[in-house]
């Protein structure tokens, strides 16, 4: 066979540059204007860290950030637990009565509009409050329940795809050697799906932190999340303080994403090395 030269389009770099510019130029402009000394967002008046100081002295904004981060972490943790268990049931338990219905209901929140989800959860909480007195009022707990409801579906899909790629022979060999199914899951299965679990946690954290529509339906007095506060502020005009806050969030998300990517890449390389040693042995 003749080794034909690969013809590469001279436009590939231009298309790539345009794509990255379209995606990241707005974020770059936001970061730059967070250091603008002017109170008018569209007017540049020189470099300053003024709005970062204003941000850290704004008690309302700090409370909203604290509430949103707490909700996002709690939501992601519970969604990972429920989503992982659901994925294991779907992939490892085989066919059982109601399996198709269970899989459908598990993934239904992925295609359900946020307005419908928020409204249905609001009606549910109101009906429960009248029927059994719980929840007595809407607040942080009801927002957490609502976020877990739709974030679990995303985690289940991520972990599901990872479980289907695993070699079941390792689990079967461990059980043949006398290990219980629970021990096999924690010692063999869980480490192999750890990258998917981390990815699912980060995805659920981002979705919960970013949610506005569902939280607006199920929130109550004193439970204003960061997206709700930002949205209400933007309706009255863009505040430069929001640029500073968004810059900090971008930096934190970028750092967490970089660390998570490094950990997953390291774990994947170690897994490949272990498999190669086992093959040579």
TrEMBL record:
Membrane topology (UniProt): Multi-pass membrane protein
Q: Which residues form the ABC transmembrane type-1 domain?
A: 65-260
Among SUPFAM superfamilies, the record links this protein to:
MetI-like
Give the transmembrane region(s): 12-35, 64-91, 103-129, 141-163, 184-206, 244-264
Query: Which InterPro entries does the record associate with it?
Result: Bact_Polyamine_Transport (IPR051789), MetI-like (IPR000515), MetI-like_sf (IPR035906)
- Phylogenetic classification of the source organism: Bacteria, Pseudomonadati, Pseudomonadota, Gammaproteobacteria, Enterobacterales
Where in or outside the cell it occurs: the entry states:
Cell inner membrane; Cell membrane
Pfam families, per the entry: BPD_transp_1
| Species for this entry | Biostraticola tofi
Q: How does it assemble?
A: The complex is composed of two ATP-binding proteins (PotG), two transmembrane proteins (PotH and PotI) and a solute-binding protein (PotF).
Q: Which UniProt keywords apply?
A: Cell inner membrane, Cell membrane, Membrane, Transmembrane, Transmembrane helix, Transport
Out of the domains of life, which is the source? Bacteria
Assign the protein's first listed, main location to one coarse class: membrane
Q: What is this protein called?
A: Putrescine transport system permease protein PotI
RNA-binding: is it a keyword of this entry? Answer: no
CDD domains the UniProt entry points to? TM_PBP2
């Amino acid at each position: 066979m003749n080794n034909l030269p690969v013809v590469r389009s001279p436009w590939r770099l231009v298309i790539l540059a345009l794509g990255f510019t379209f995606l990241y130029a707005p974020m770059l402009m936001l970061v730059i204007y967070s250091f603008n000394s002017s109170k008018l967002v569209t007017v540049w008046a020189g470099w300053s860290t003024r709005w970062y100081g204003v941000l850290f002295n704004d008690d309302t904004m700090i409370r909203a950030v604290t509430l949103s981060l707490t909700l996002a972490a709690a939501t992601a943790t519970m969604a990972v637990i429920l989503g992982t268990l659901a994925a294991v049931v779907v992939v490892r338990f085989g066919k059982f009565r109601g399996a198709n219905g269970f899989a459908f209901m598990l993934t239904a929140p992925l295609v359900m509009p946020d307005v419908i989800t928020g409204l249905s959860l609001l009606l549910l909480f109101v009906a429960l409050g009248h029927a059994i007195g719980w929840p007595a009022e809407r607040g942080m707990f009801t927002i957490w329940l609502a976020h877990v409801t739709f974030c679990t579906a995303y985690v289940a899909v991520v972990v599901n795809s990872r479980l289907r790629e695993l070699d079941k022979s390792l689990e079967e060999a461990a059980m043949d050697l006398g290990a219980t199914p629970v021990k096999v899951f924690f010692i063999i299965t869980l480490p192999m799906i750890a990258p998917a679990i981390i990815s699912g946690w980060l995805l659920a954290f981002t979705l919960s932190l970013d949610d506005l529509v569902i939280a607006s339906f199920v929130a109550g007095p004193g439970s204003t999340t960061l997206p709700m506060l930002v949205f209400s502020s933007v309706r009255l005009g863009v505040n430069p303080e929001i640029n500073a806050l968004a810059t900090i969030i971008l930096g934190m998300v970028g750092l967490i994403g970089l660390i998570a990517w490094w950990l997953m890449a390291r774990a994947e390389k170690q897994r490949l090395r272990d498999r190669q040693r086992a093959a040579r042995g």
